[in-house]
């Protein structure tokens, strides 16, 4: 039995400096500033959750997330939790528009549930296909928006460290972007390239950009969110144009919920989907993964600017579901200090979940 009573709930803002600003087409993070939730049961078991707030992407704010989680924390004190998923689904509507807070709540509740049951979190997410679990996998590493020289330096460093998949942020300046992609290709010629435009192109410009890359033999395996969130027509145009090619067209900003995922799959607007706990929570994220897997849609599991706590929670999801083709769980490499340490992630970007401790397995100090 994993029934428990919440004795205490603490909400706090945590922050950490970054190694380098995390720049994308629509803005940047200069530091990690997130909201943590700690729940403690009457038996003294603690569970932790993290809300990664990306105001320039989702419009959510630190004060709003803090207030929402403080409200939830107050409501949870003294509450008996019998069915973790039912409880989270019941509270979800009161966190509408603040999916990061929902993710933190679900993470903390599931962390406790799994600790009480003595199982690692991945066991809560059974395999989505007959391929079973996938306990060992590598994350890509992001080359943030910046100069050609910065792209060169970062690629050389990460390549030496052992990374083999580079996710290059583009969509800010096409001429520089082209040079940056070619620089990564030149420095790490055997690597896989992923491009993430974060909505920075329109369909025609994106296809022209890919043509230029083709001419230099630098074709990406996956192209993420080339056009604005609601430009489904643009996504469809690009997907049709790339049909049969080696490049998947992946929705990120366009798919934040199960209904968005249904639309993306039913219309064939994209050929891959990026799931993030911060967009849809853990339960709905897993539902999206199962829906996509049933429809043979490749999946990326990504993250906002998350510390080791929530990155590790996502790694458990990926390991359990076993249907994640592209892990984009690299933000700990951009964070300085304690919050960057996941016990299941090594310096080369390899996650190894075999033998993981009960729960998420991360004990944040805050
Ligand atoms: Mg993205």
Automatic annotation (TrEMBL):
Cofactor comment text: Binds 1 Mg(2+) ion per subunit.
Signal peptide coordinates: none
Cofactor list: Mg(2+)
Q: What is its EC number?
A: 5.1.1.-
Q: Which Pfam families does the protein's record reference?
A: MR_MLE_C, MR_MLE_N
What keywords are assigned to this protein?
Isomerase, Magnesium, Metal-binding
Keyword Lipid biosynthesis tagged:
no
Specify whether Transferase is a keyword of the entry.
Answer: no
Question: Which sites are catalytic?
Answer: 169 (proton acceptor), 276 (proton acceptor)
* CDD domains assigned: L-Ala-DL-Glu_epimerase
Sequence similarity: Belongs to the mandelate racemase/muconate lactonizing enzyme family.
Task: Specify the protein name.
Answer: Dipeptide epimerase
